[in-house]
């Protein structure tokens, strides 16, 4: 299958590109490399040293004989995107190429505008490019479980059967996103649903949980193939951030009471879920939503898990509670359905002590790279 | 009350600005005059001749002694918007300043991108300006009944009580908008709801039906104050378009079977609804949704009403059916709630034969201005 991985230089995109390439697919990466530039802007870095995209794909070719084409450019530049479609004739377009940090989108007006404009218009361009150049191409779009917020009813996969005043309909699941970033994904979902309806586009929206982990079998083959690992208050996600705090002797800082429950999955499952979606494309005109996570935990649970494993490794850490920079419920109902990917064959990598230990080991190997003043949150929702 | 009317040079904004000024409010108009430029782009015009904004407000001052300040500029330019907020210190911000034609947004990719970027980012800027310069200012935002689409259940005002698997919640009403324009309003609604939650902004989303009519008591005071009247396939809305077709001896062209049912209101009720919202502001942090319409009709019903009144005036017209350029259901359930504005005192101007005759008379007075090749739809959803 000819597959474009947009955002293929990023934390989820890079391992996905390698995995799909290894499975024998003809993979092209599209990326504007902005995530690397944001490291400069925020004076931040990945704990793991990461090679340039050029070095990465060259090493991959050297080790496997497989070629990954690269197109460095921006989805917001339609001429560029059109050229990519003409040259690659994709069967699937995997779309990771969005600004994906909630705190980054909340820095100030300019960052909110950048996030929504970049994500929404970039995605609109992808829809038009599919319509114009590859109408059979399957759009596999990364959404987020954060689109749903924390309703007091069960979260279904994209749609909800509603009975109201004696009548019934199956409607898009109501969305209550919690940042300008999460909102951008909700906007995308609505735009894609409409494009499927009017143009017959095939699309799968992967409402992904919080991703943890670092290595996949492919990124572990050589240090040049290593994946990035974020730990800072802007791009670091809960579990990875706690592990790096443990590795550097920092308290594990839980926002508020820590009762916030979120859906999680291992980066190894991210790459497999994308493969499953690609191998089982949506029908013509279908807008399909998969909830892409394997387990859910409260933030407090996660911190305690990390504390335990770190303790067994001889690292004493404290779980401390800091003012929550976000506006969110700290105690709430949470039950979300995730059966569609399981039905198609996903076998989850669950969050075992072994998994936490693996990430902790990688963090300890590079702990001298951690910029300590970046660890605590500096961006407030208010 | 100090009120900004953004989009105050347009079809709804101009009569609203006059009406609020007449009621004694201190009104400022903000407008980038783009609707006039779009007339040039589309080689289109208003059936009624319209004066410049400068002439309009000068005449208003001459007739009433009341001053309406004008700020010509774009909500997408934040420095400009910030300056407007600093100079006016608004108690209410009435936001009509969006690209408001569904067909225009469907012309091609560039028009879709323009519509979503202009509307969503402009509105984001307004939210940030309120937060930064006027945190108590009440945002009165024009949404559309088209945000809801045509679900098979009753349409409520913004929220829906849902019972699911034995649990209950009140959630944002699921949205199924039918064009990139309608989608932009859905994106706005989600962004505003979030801003209310995190910053305590007061907002009322007026989900307005299709507006018909032309005159208000104020715009009738002098030809220089006349409102615009669109009839073309891009900006003309159903009822007004039928009336102008009748006035110019054109068949009344119903899209498809004409079973599409939509909510309508008279422009005289638009201005009153905005006043009601302004006089009864939302609470701090409240995101309130009013469905702003008075009646609903199928498109076929409307055509037949116009045919009847035109016939009584001696104008013989045929109702013809043309291919539907839109992708939409032509037969569907439609029942929408609109009690909140009524409860606050709205007394509807219903669609009587007299009302149709009034618009028809205005159209006949200016029928030589109609550019006939603009009447039929030229933009397809596919």
TrEMBL record, chains A, B:
Signal peptide range: none
Domain NAD-dependent epimerase/dehydratase: 3-291
TM region(s), chain numbering: none
Pfam family, one: Epimerase
SUPFAM superfamilies attached to this UniProt entry: NAD(P)-binding Rossmann-fold domains
Gene3D superfamilies for this protein: NAD(P)-binding Rossmann-like Domain (3.40.50.720), UDP-galactose 4-epimerase, domain 1 (3.90.25.10)
Family note: Belongs to the NAD(P)-dependent epimerase/dehydratase family.
Name by which UniProt lists this protein: UDP-sulfoquinovose synthase
Organism of this sequence: Sediminibacillus halophilus
Lineage, opening ranks: Bacteria, Bacillati, Bacillota, Bacilli, Bacillales
């Amino acid at each position: 299958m000819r597959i474009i991985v947009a955002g293929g230089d990023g934390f989820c995109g890079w391992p996905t590109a390698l995995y799909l390439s290894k499975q024998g697919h003809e993979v092209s990466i599209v990326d504007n490399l902005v995530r690397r530039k944001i490291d400069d802007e925020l004076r931040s870095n990945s704990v793991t040293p990461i090679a340039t995209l050029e070095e990465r794909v060259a090493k991959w070719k050297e080790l496997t004989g497989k070629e990954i084409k690269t197109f460095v450019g921006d989805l917001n530049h339609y001429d560029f995107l059109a050229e990519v479609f003409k040259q690659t004739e994709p069967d699937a377009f995997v779309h990771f190429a969005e600004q994906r940090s909630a705190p980054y989108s909340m820095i100030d007006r300019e960052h909110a505008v950048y996030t929504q404009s970049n994500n929404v218009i970039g995605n609109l361009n992808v829809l038009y490019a599919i319509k114009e150049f590859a109408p059979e191409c399957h759009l596999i779009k990364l959404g987020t479980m954060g689109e749903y917020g924390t309703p007091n009813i069960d979260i279904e996969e994209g749609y909800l059967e509603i009975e109201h005043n004696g009548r019934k309909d199956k409607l898009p699941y109501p969305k209550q996103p919690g940042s300008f970033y999460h909102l951008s994904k909700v906007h995308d979902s609505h735009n894609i649903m409409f494009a499927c309806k009017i143009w017959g586009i095939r699309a799968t929206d992967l409402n992904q949980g919080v991703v943890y982990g670092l290595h996949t079998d492919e990124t572990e083959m050589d240090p040049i193939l290593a994946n990035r690992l974020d730990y800072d208050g802007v791009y670091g996600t809960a579990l990875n951030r706690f592990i790096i705090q443990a590795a550097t002797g920092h308290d594990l800082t839980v926002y508020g009471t820590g009762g916030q429950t979120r859906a999680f999955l291992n980066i190894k499952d991210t790459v497999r879920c994308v493969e499953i979606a690609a191998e089982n494309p949506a029908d013509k005109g279908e807008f399909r939503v998969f909830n892409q996570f394997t387990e859910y935990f409260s933030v407090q649970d996660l911190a305690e898990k990390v504390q335990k494993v770190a303790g067994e490794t001889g690292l004493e850490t404290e779980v401390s509670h800091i003012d929550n920079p976000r506006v969110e419920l700290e105690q709430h109902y949470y039950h979300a359905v995730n059966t569609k990917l399981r039905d198609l064959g996903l076998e989850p990598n669950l969050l075992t002590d072994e998994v936490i230990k693996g990430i902790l080991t990688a963090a300890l190997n590079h702990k001298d790279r951690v910029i300590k003043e970046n660890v605590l949150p500096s961006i407030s929702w208010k």
